[in-house]
Amino acid sequence: MKTSAIEIENKVDRLLAVLDRDIQHMEETLSRLNELRALVIKRDDASLGKLLESIRSESDSYKDNESKRRLLREELAIALGCSLEQMTLSRLEAELSGEKKIEVAQRKAKLRTLARNLMKEHLSTATLLSDCARFNRLLLKSIFELEGTGIMTYSPRGFNERQTNTAFVNLQY
Protein backbone atom coordinates (compact mmCIF):
# COMPACT_ATOMS: atom_id res chain seq x y z
CA MET A 1 0.00 0.00 0.00
CA LYS A 2 1.30 3.44 -0.88
CA THR A 3 2.07 5.99 1.81
CA SER A 4 -0.58 8.38 0.46
CA ALA A 5 -3.23 5.64 0.57
CA ILE A 6 -2.36 4.89 4.21
CA GLU A 7 -2.44 8.61 4.94
CA ILE A 8 -5.89 8.92 3.36
CA GLU A 9 -7.16 5.92 5.31
CA ASN A 10 -5.91 7.44 8.57
CA LYS A 11 -7.67 10.71 7.74
CA VAL A 12 -10.83 8.80 6.85
CA ASP A 13 -10.68 6.97 10.20
CA ARG A 14 -10.38 10.30 12.02
CA LEU A 15 -13.22 11.71 9.89
CA LEU A 16 -15.44 8.74 10.76
CA ALA A 17 -14.88 9.46 14.46
CA VAL A 18 -15.82 13.10 13.89
CA LEU A 19 -18.92 12.04 11.93
CA ASP A 20 -19.90 9.72 14.80
CA ARG A 21 -19.73 12.73 17.13
CA ASP A 22 -21.86 14.69 14.61
CA ILE A 23 -24.43 11.90 14.62
CA GLN A 24 -24.47 11.85 18.42
CA HIS A 25 -24.85 15.64 18.51
CA MET A 26 -27.79 15.56 16.08
CA GLU A 27 -29.52 12.82 18.08
CA GLU A 28 -29.05 14.86 21.28
CA THR A 29 -30.41 17.93 19.51
CA LEU A 30 -33.52 16.01 18.43
CA SER A 31 -34.04 14.89 22.01
CA ARG A 32 -33.57 18.43 23.31
CA LEU A 33 -36.08 19.85 20.84
CA ASN A 34 -38.66 17.35 22.08
CA GLU A 35 -37.81 18.22 25.68
CA LEU A 36 -37.99 21.95 24.88
CA ARG A 37 -41.47 21.62 23.41
CA ALA A 38 -42.65 19.58 26.40
CA LEU A 39 -41.28 22.14 28.87
CA VAL A 40 -42.86 25.04 26.97
CA ILE A 41 -46.21 23.28 27.01
CA LYS A 42 -45.85 22.49 30.73
CA ARG A 43 -44.66 26.06 31.36
CA ASP A 44 -41.79 24.76 33.51
CA ASP A 45 -39.57 27.84 33.58
CA ALA A 46 -36.97 26.39 35.96
CA SER A 47 -36.38 23.32 33.82
CA LEU A 48 -36.39 25.46 30.66
CA GLY A 49 -33.63 27.62 32.14
CA LYS A 50 -31.55 24.55 32.99
CA LEU A 51 -32.09 23.08 29.52
CA LEU A 52 -31.08 26.29 27.77
CA GLU A 53 -27.99 26.61 29.96
CA SER A 54 -26.92 23.04 29.15
CA ILE A 55 -27.48 23.71 25.44
CA ARG A 56 -25.25 26.79 25.63
CA SER A 57 -22.44 24.96 27.41
CA GLU A 58 -22.55 21.98 25.05
CA SER A 59 -22.59 24.15 21.95
CA ASP A 60 -19.28 25.63 23.07
CA SER A 61 -17.76 22.17 23.48
CA TYR A 62 -19.13 21.03 20.09
CA LYS A 63 -17.20 23.77 18.29
CA ASP A 64 -14.05 21.68 18.71
CA ASN A 65 -15.64 18.87 16.70
CA GLU A 66 -16.64 21.32 13.96
CA SER A 67 -13.08 22.60 13.65
CA LYS A 68 -11.75 19.01 13.48
CA ARG A 69 -14.21 18.25 10.67
CA ARG A 70 -13.19 21.39 8.76
CA LEU A 71 -9.50 20.57 9.13
CA LEU A 72 -9.96 16.94 8.03
CA ARG A 73 -12.02 18.07 5.07
CA GLU A 74 -9.22 20.43 4.01
CA GLU A 75 -6.59 17.71 4.44
CA LEU A 76 -8.63 15.19 2.45
CA ALA A 77 -9.26 17.73 -0.30
CA ILE A 78 -5.51 18.26 -0.63
CA ALA A 79 -4.78 14.52 -0.50
CA LEU A 80 -7.42 13.75 -3.14
CA GLY A 81 -6.48 16.71 -5.33
CA CYS A 82 -9.80 18.54 -5.31
CA SER A 83 -11.08 21.87 -4.03
CA LEU A 84 -12.59 22.27 -0.59
CA GLU A 85 -16.05 22.86 -2.10
CA GLN A 86 -15.81 19.57 -4.01
CA MET A 87 -14.76 17.61 -0.90
CA THR A 88 -18.04 16.02 0.17
CA LEU A 89 -18.92 12.66 1.66
CA SER A 90 -20.21 11.58 -1.75
CA ARG A 91 -16.90 12.49 -3.35
CA LEU A 92 -14.98 10.71 -0.59
CA GLU A 93 -17.19 7.65 -0.95
CA ALA A 94 -16.48 7.55 -4.71
CA GLU A 95 -12.71 7.70 -4.06
CA LEU A 96 -12.71 4.88 -1.50
CA SER A 97 -13.20 1.16 -1.82
CA GLY A 98 -13.98 -1.74 0.44
CA GLU A 99 -14.86 -1.35 4.11
CA LYS A 100 -14.08 2.39 4.30
CA LYS A 101 -16.46 3.10 1.42
CA ILE A 102 -19.24 1.21 3.22
CA GLU A 103 -18.55 3.02 6.51
CA VAL A 104 -18.63 6.45 4.84
CA ALA A 105 -21.87 5.53 3.03
CA GLN A 106 -23.47 4.42 6.31
CA ARG A 107 -22.50 7.63 8.10
CA LYS A 108 -23.71 9.71 5.16
CA ALA A 109 -27.10 7.95 5.13
CA LYS A 110 -27.45 8.32 8.90
CA LEU A 111 -26.55 12.02 8.77
CA ARG A 112 -29.00 12.60 5.92
CA THR A 113 -31.84 10.91 7.85
CA LEU A 114 -31.03 12.83 11.02
CA ALA A 115 -30.85 16.11 9.11
CA ARG A 116 -34.33 15.52 7.67
CA ASN A 117 -35.68 14.65 11.13
CA LEU A 118 -33.97 17.68 12.61
CA MET A 119 -35.57 19.97 10.03
CA LYS A 120 -39.02 18.54 10.85
CA GLU A 121 -38.50 18.86 14.60
CA HIS A 122 -37.11 22.38 14.21
CA LEU A 123 -40.17 23.38 12.21
CA SER A 124 -42.47 21.86 14.84
CA THR A 125 -40.66 23.72 17.63
CA ALA A 126 -40.64 27.00 15.70
CA THR A 127 -44.37 26.62 14.98
CA LEU A 128 -45.14 25.97 18.66
CA LEU A 129 -43.09 28.97 19.79
CA SER A 130 -44.67 31.15 17.10
CA ASP A 131 -48.15 30.09 18.21
CA CYS A 132 -47.25 30.81 21.84
CA ALA A 133 -46.00 34.27 20.91
CA ARG A 134 -49.13 34.95 18.84
CA PHE A 135 -51.38 33.79 21.70
CA ASN A 136 -49.48 35.95 24.20
CA ARG A 137 -49.77 38.99 21.90
CA LEU A 138 -53.51 38.47 21.55
CA LEU A 139 -53.89 37.98 25.29
CA LEU A 140 -51.93 41.12 26.11
CA LYS A 141 -53.78 43.09 23.46
CA SER A 142 -57.12 42.06 24.91
CA ILE A 143 -55.99 42.98 28.44
CA PHE A 144 -54.49 46.35 27.57
CA GLU A 145 -56.91 47.47 24.86
CA LEU A 146 -58.73 50.64 25.91
CA GLU A 147 -62.41 49.93 26.64
CA GLY A 148 -62.22 47.06 24.19
CA THR A 149 -62.94 49.39 21.26
CA GLY A 150 -59.47 49.79 19.86
CA ILE A 151 -59.94 53.59 19.75
CA MET A 152 -56.87 55.64 20.48
CA THR A 153 -57.16 59.25 21.62
CA TYR A 154 -54.53 61.93 21.20
CA SER A 155 -53.75 65.09 23.13
CA PRO A 156 -53.59 68.45 21.35
CA ARG A 157 -49.80 68.00 21.14
CA GLY A 158 -50.17 64.73 19.19
CA PHE A 159 -49.32 62.27 21.96
CA ASN A 160 -51.55 59.29 22.55
CA GLU A 161 -53.25 59.19 25.94
CA ARG A 162 -54.50 56.34 28.02
CA GLN A 163 -58.06 56.80 29.14
CA THR A 164 -58.04 56.94 32.93
CA ASN A 165 -61.76 56.39 33.39
CA THR A 166 -61.55 52.73 32.46
CA ALA A 167 -60.71 49.99 34.92
CA PHE A 168 -57.75 47.79 34.15
CA VAL A 169 -59.22 44.85 36.04
CA ASN A 170 -62.71 44.62 37.50
CA LEU A 171 -62.37 43.36 41.06
CA GLN A 172 -66.11 43.15 41.77
CA TYR A 173 -67.75 39.76 42.02
Number of strands: 2
How many separate domains make up the residues?
Answer: 1
CATH third-tier fold name: Methane Monooxygenase Hydroxylase, Chain G, domain 1
Query: What is the end-to-end distance?
Result: 89 Å
Extract low-pLDDT stretches: none
How would you characterize the largest beta sheet? 2 strands, antiparallel
Please give the CATH class.
Mainly Alpha
From the structure provided, what is the oligomeric state, counting identical versus distinct chains?
Answer: single chain
Descriptive account of the structure:
It is a single chain. This protein has four helices and two strands. The protein is mainly alpha-helical. The mean pLDDT is 85.
Features:
173 residues, mainly alpha, two-stranded antiparallel ribbon, 4 helices
Write the layout of secondary structure elements.
Elements: H1 3-42, H2 45-80, H3 89-95, H4 98-144, E1 153-154, E2 160-161
Antiparallel strand pairs: 1-2
